[in-house]
UniProtKB/TrEMBL annotation:
Gene3D superfamilies noted in UniProt: Transferase(Phosphotransferase) domain 1
Name of the protein: Protein kinase domain-containing protein
PROSITE patterns found in the cross-reference section: PROTEIN_KINASE_DOM
Record-linked Pfam families: Pkinase (PF00069)
Amino acid sequence: MSEVQLSMRGTPGYLAPEWHKVLGHVTVKVDVYSFGIVLLEVVCARRNVDHSQPESAFHLLRMLQNKAEYILGYLDECIQSDREEILRMLEVAAWCLQDDPERRPPMSTVVKVLEGLMEVDSNLVYKFSHALTPPPAVMPIFLQHQASVF
């Protein structure tokens, strides 16, 4: 006898938005979303859900959505010298974190982008774009040509 699981299961903080919809259609793109969260964790050098942080920074993605600071302020100092790789990872993370699962890339494409064989889709839509682009006066020079990607 087979059983259909109708309840949501997964690790808090890694669940794609469609898991939270009552009748949301769940596909393999939920894993792509989770991978986007993992990329943010790697780049920001912190857990997605960190109970040791203040409430406003408890969830990494929510913090990036709500804070006025831009994302490079959260990067590990050890990786600041690898700016091109960091920006590529942030672009891939943003692509993976699209609210609409149809807009997320397949993992085979993610691998090609991370290997430098493909470019990230330039038509990204996501809610933390304001967190990635500081006012022009404080934007580091190396980001000025990249900010339009986000």
